[in-house]
Amino acid sequence: MTSQQRKKRDKNVKPIKEDAFLQKYNMELLKCIDDMKMKRDEVNRSILTLSDEQQKLESDVLHLTAQLARVNESLCKKMKQQGECDELISEYNEAFHRLLYGQQTLLANVRRSVNTVAPSVILEESEAASLSSRQAARSSKMSFSTRGDTRADGRKDSRRDSRTDVSHQESRAESTIQ
Fold first, then answer.
1. Nearest-5° Cα angle at 132, 126 to 137
2. CA atoms of 142 and 33, how far apart (whole Å)
3. Contact of 124 with 173, CB cutoff 8 Å
4. CA-CA-CA-CA torsion for 86, 88, 91, 97, nearest 10 degrees?
5. Is the pTM of this model over 0.85?
6. Among candidates 166, 168, 163, 170, which has minimal Cα distance to 141?
7. Confidence grade of residue 175 (pLDDT, cut at 50, 70, 90)
8. Collapsed DSSP state (helix, strand, coil) of residue 156
9. What b-and-e string marks burial along 41-60, b requiring 16 or more CB atoms within 10 Å of the CB?
10. For the stretch 109-124, what's the b/e string if a residue is b when 16 or more beta carbons lie within 10 angstroms of its beta carbon?
11. Contact predicate 142/124, CB 8 Å
């Protein structure tokens, strides 16, 4: 073969080889483009899924924010009510302790009064009781004695005078008690 023939043949071969290589590269390029489209579709689906999830979460955040606001408002009201209850309890407790102190003071004053007044009242009552028992004894003796104011010997009956003295003593004892 001559060099010219070889050149011709090489010319023919080269373009066939080059065309095959180009076609192979084109196929690989198309395959890569298809892979990129598939990856893009997967990313697009992920984007849609994440967008849906984002919208749902934003909705939840709005709902939870509103719920948080309601809970905070309720919590503030409850804490205010608790503070008011604590104040009332403190005031009532203080009033109760003042009342107890007043009762203790009153009891101490009554006891002191009873200790100072009662012995004299008890003494007067015992004196009055002894006087009335004496008077009862005398009156029972008088029922057996003579009715007259004077005795047979002409003197005044002393029993009658002692009875009037006893009644004067009783009236004096009652006036000191009052």
1. 130
2. 152
3. yes
4. -80
5. no
6. 163
7. very low
8. strand
9. eeeeeeeeeeeeeeeeeeee
10. eeeeeeeeeeeeeeee
11. no
